[in-house]
Design goal:
Elements lengths: L1 H16 L25 E6 L4 E8 L2 E7 L4 E8 L6 E3 L6 E5 L2 E7 L3 H4 L2 E8 L5
Length: about 130
């Protein structure tokens, strides 16, 4: 019992003594990957015409995390974009792209033989309906 109480007493003493303040410890002050966080912390979920499921996490106004599932495998990557470029994002290799207009999106992704053919495929995506 003494071992469990000691850390609690030490933390209380430090907080009361002013050695540790909680004022500056807010989630909003944390930048993800060097980017300013999106104040809205939005997420998106889309169903695509080719059967893929796409999930977007808006990390900042110019950076998203995109994951998609083709029914067999799940792929995840970070995409960067320009705030004034009309909602377009691309990964570092420019072989995974997401273009969003209004509430719909277009996913451009590498074909299975991309390493040899450099062929990219495109599919239209619509927001998934939310069920209560």
């Amino acid at each position: 019992m003494r071992i469990v109480l000691w850390p609690a007493w030490a933390a209380a003493a430090l907080l009361l003594g002013g050695c540790i303040t909680m004022d500056n410890l807010t989630l909003e002050s944390v930048a993800i990957g060097g980017y300013e966080p999106d104040p809205n912390g939005r997420y998106g979920s889309f169903s695509c015409d080719n059967g893929y499921s796409v999930f977007i996490k808006y990390l900042s106004p110019i950076r998203i995390s995109l994951s998609f599932n083709n029914g067999k495998d799940r792929f995840i990557d970070y995409l960067d974009g320009q705030a004034d470029a009309g909602g377009g994002y691309a990964n570092r290799l420019n072989n995974l792209r997401w273009q969003e207009t209004n509430s719909a999106g277009v996913l451009t992704y590498p074909a299975g033989d991309w390493r040899t053919s450099r062929r990219l495929l495109t599919t239209a995506c619509t927001p998934r309906s939310r069920h209560p």
